């Protein structure tokens, strides 16, 4: 189709499905309410407030996608506080709905859970990759600094899981 782009299509989809506005999502997330243009100016990328208010009658009409795209990013994130809230909420719901998720109550015993939590992705790579004998502790960072040098896979700094925590004790008194 001519004249279609993903952003306009997503805006229309959100309207078709009754997705609440940007300001309604901010309320849901417990973020500061937008009461005037100055409030909007503080949370949006510099220079975007005038553009938004030319397209929308009021800040309460701003579509979620557009508001989220124009929102200033959090210091330690690639998204603003509203989208961060939505992403967090989705991860929590996904984890809670997964009856096999490892840290839900009654899935593992406390000592088993402690054993699982000590294992890192470095250990997973060491144990499950072909011809790997060295790995850095922090696998997502290049092994260029002394803090993240390549270590032998049998190093104590790349902890192994102790499977003995899953052994079931056998009652020898039973007949």
TrEMBL record:
Q: Which UniProt keywords apply?
A: Oxidoreductase, Peroxidase
Write out the coiled-coil annotation as residue ranges: none
Which Pfam families does the UniProt entry name for this protein? Answer: An_peroxidase (PF03098)
Q: Does the keyword Oxidoreductase apply?
A: yes
Q: Which GO terms describe its molecular function?
A: heme binding; peroxidase activity
Biological processes, Gene Ontology terms: response to oxidative stress
Show the InterPro entries listed in the entry: Haem_peroxidase_animal, Haem_peroxidase_sf, Haem_peroxidase_sf_animal
| The keyword Oxidoreductase belongs to this UniProt entry's keyword annotation | yes
Identification of the protein by name = Peroxidase-like
What organism does this protein naturally occur in? Answer: Aphis craccivora (Cowpea aphid)
Taxonomic lineage:
Eukaryota, Metazoa, Ecdysozoa, Arthropoda, Hexapoda
